[in-house]
Design brief:
The complex is a heterodimer of chains A (about 260) and B (about 450). With about 260 residues, chain A is an alpha/beta fold. Chain A has one domain: Ethanolamine ammonia-lyase light chain (EutC) (Rossmann fold, 3-Layer(aba) Sandwich), CATH 3.40.50. Helix content of chain A is about 35%, strand content about 15%. In chain A, helix 6 links the parallel strand 2 and strand 3. Helices cover about 45% and strands about 10% of the residues of chain B. Chain B contains 22 helices and 15 strands. Classes of the chains: A alpha/beta (about 260), B alpha/beta (about 450). The interface between A and B is large, with 53 and 72 residues.
Chain lengths: ~260, ~450
Amino acid sequence: MTGARGKDPWDRLRAATPARIGLGRAGTAEPLPASLDFQFAHARARDAVHRGVDFGALAAALAPHETILVDSACPDRATYLRRPDLGRRLGPGDWPALDGHPAADLVFVVADGLSADAVQSHAAALIHACAEPLAGLMIGPVVLVRQGRVAIGDAIGARLGARLVVVLIGERPGLTVADSLGAYLTFAPRPGRRDSERNCISNIHGRGGQSHAEAAAKIAWLARAALARSVTGIALKDDVPALAPAGPTRLAERP
Amino acid sequence: MTLYRTTFGGETFRFADLRETLAAASPLRSGDELAGIAAQTGTARVAAQAVLADLPLATFLNEAVIPYDSDEVTRLILDSHDAAAFAPIRSMTVGGFRDWLLSDAATPERVTALARGLTPEMVAATSKLMRNRDLIAAARKAPVTAAFRTTLGLPGRIGSRLQPNHPSDDMRGIAASILDGLSYGVGDAVIGINPATDNIPNAIALIEMLDELRQRHAIPTQSCVLTHVTNAIEIMARGAPVDLVFQSIAGTEAANAGFGVSLSVLDEAHDAALGLGRGSVGQNVMYFETGQGSALSAEAHHGVDQQTLEARAHAVARRYKPLLVNTVVGFIGPEYLYDGKQIIRAGLEDHFCGKLLGLPMGADVCHTNHAEADQNDMDVLMTLLAHAGATFLIAVPGADDVMLNYQSLSFHDIAYLRNTFGLRAAPEFEAWLEALGLIDAGGHLPDTDAPTRALIAGAA
């Protein structure tokens, strides 16, 4: 703003919110530094959507867990963004690597979702952080999915005969946080499960989100409760109000 | 029996029924492709448009796209149809109506008088025969005013919703964003918060904070916490100072059920809000959001294209004579509107349909980070909507909603529309801005930041 004198009156208010307040203006436009900040954040978020996960590095980081890499029915990112139905199904092929595993209590599925950065930064660390709180449970191989949506965990979990599937997936990136990971738990996974039959832990990231240890503790709590009561979803969430997801009142897209 | 077929370039195109014809005639968008109802080819799309063009408008009174017996939105549409208002156009075809709307014979007086005689399907069909420029020209002929503490929709003016969301509903953080918006002259349509935590005590705390801030600064505007309508009913029963009742709505009974609402619940909320009598210059007490793709997202689309369903949501809204309705075009995701081109088109369609049906229609000009869109697309859409006569647009600090994680317009953008095109805020709000020196007599932001400093100091 032109003609400003003295201390910036917004200084004190900026501490109260991450919102882009007190930017000043050039005419009616954002000043160029603010405009470039915004464009940088947008570019970072879009890079997170479109960058591919380095699944080789992820598999290495997951050692000593056995990993299996599969593809969804989406051949590329453009299809993934348009066709959520295909991202929920395994791609063409028999996927023999999914056969012959002993039935597990719990299987982790790691899908790229909408943020490669989230998966690359947090998935392996989170699974390692779950080892202690999940001690005593039979854990199956970790299945890595290219171009996957949450519900592909249903097909994979069923194929492996898992009692419970935990899908770790990159959440839709925002301008402030582009690497937020979500975890979705589904008991008795099989194709056709509804979203209301899952429990979700979201906002796993390092910018004021849930830490790996916090998220691991919640996953373990929910997993043991789900296995004990043979259910996930609304029925289980009702008992754990602190884990209920925030409910922004907006027309929502499905995960 | 109506036959949905035509011959074009020597090729015959057939469509099974009205629903399939409407879907095939809709300009390409990802949501209809996802639903498997989009035209298979570009030529089939044009052929479907030609079929629609020759249909009498009266067809829509005899053939429902979702059966009357199984859907309360269809019943609302047909039972509330005003035959007298429809009379001037009853013998027109869809194509004839399109031509008439774009002619000089279609004056604003004549167009606005038709509203209750138009069904959403008629308006949706007409929009499918229009280019973007036609949607702008025709919507401009259908001004709609509504009022609570401000009067919205007057000629030469554009309203704005100040959206001060915060990721943890921090009261000081929300207040900081409100002060920021007011300093740009934003907020005459509503100061409206999407709460991060949707429960009753939290909503009451936010409603009381907004009301206190409004009264302390004597701001002539209305506030709203966008909580579920059933929460709003309970909150009003507890005596909290509710100005506007909000709800997301859709165009089918099943999709509305997915939102946890029905016409009877909305009736109850509307009656309760009217009973509070809090408006000063008007008693339009409802605020609705709609958006193409919401019914498909709820798996409740009945094979009807998303643009027609959006218009049906507008029919739900108009039952309640709302103060505000906006499409959240661009928010629902690229599986419904893939890129900037589709978002821009949908924004103009939604505005056109809402205005023709008599709604004070606005828009959240917005996009998500996984859509093929950026602020350049938003610039185009906001500029077009301002010229089309949009009742209001949503704005957030720096175009970045830090709670809902998407990009809308910035407060700066509202100032741009006003300064560049001479558009003004609602008169009651404008007088308040001018009295505080936040705008000058020409409606422009002043050269000095003294008024903003005074506003901030007064809020401390």
